[in-house]
Design brief:
This protein is an alpha/beta fold. It is built from eight helices and six strands; from the N terminus they run E-H-H-H-H-H-E-H-E-H-E-H-E-E. It has helices at about 20-40, 45-55, 65-75, 75-85, 95-100, 115-125, 150-155, 170-180, and strands at about 10, 105-110, 135, 165-170, 185-190, 205. Helix 1 (about 20-40) crosses helix 2 (about 45-55).
Length: about 220
């Protein structure tokens, strides 16, 4: 990284700083198990019923909205996340990176698609937001980061020079949207879920952990 060319650091939360293993486990195991119990189904039947509900709204605001899922599934998603919060963890090297970056003189901003309640629960568990100058949930802007409408709205709230900004995310559609907006320095996290093998990152420069950016 040519840090002298960067004034602002925008960081994703899940899969970039926090281990996506929690979210994958929560949505692929915890939610189907509770849904099965509430509806007299086997877990396999619940998973089969939920999969199209999930895939139909992927990369849209409802996918990230716990109010949406609480209503659609008739489950208290906030309560389930509170029960499971002890499994929230930093990815390897992420907290070390934030500790050092905090003293770099750069403006550090969290930009997450997670619902504000999810951010609040995770922050209470790992004290994430203390490392940031500002924290945003895309729910405040009405569209997720992968939507081209997000970035023009976001820059009005958090003024930054796209040419002197670093943005790190694990989602390729999100990075594509950021590239189209003009953010000059982009990095993709190759292993957002510590329990899964590294994934391909296409044309984006990849890192296994954000701590590598300090090398």
């Amino acid at each position: 990284m040519e840090w002298e060319k960067i004034d602002t650091v925008l960081l994703d939360m899940d899969g970039t700083l926090l281990d996506l293993r929690f979210d994958n486990w929560f949505w692929l195991n915890v939610v189907p198990e509770r849904y099965a119990l509430a509806n007299g189904l086997s877990v396999q039947e619940a998973q089969a019923r939920l999969e199209p509900l999930f895939s139909n709204v992927a990369h849209t605001m409802p996918w990230y909205c716990i109010d949406h899922w609480s209503r659609v599934l008739d489950l208290d998603i906030r309560a389930l996340k509170l029960e499971a919060r002890e499994h929230v963890r930093f990815l390897p090297g992420a907290e070390q990176f934030l500790q050092k970056l905090r003293h770099s003189g750069k403006r550090i901003v969290l930009v997450t698609n997670s619902h504000p309640v999810t951010l609040e629960i995770k922050d209470a568990q790992v004290a994430l937001t203390r490392y940031f100058d500002a924290c945003y949930s895309t729910h405040s802007f009405g569209v997720p980061k992968e939507n081209s409408q997000f970035w023009p709205r976001f820059v009005e709230a958090e003024s930054f020079d796209a040419g002197r900004t670093l943005f790190v995310d694990d989602s390729l559609p999100v990075l594509e949207s950021a590239r189209a907006f003009g953010i000059a320095h982009l990095r993709a996290v190759r292993q957002p879920d510590s329990a899964q093998p590294p994934k391909a990152t296409g044309r984006f420069l990849a890192i296994d952990s954000v701590v590598e950016l300090l090398d």
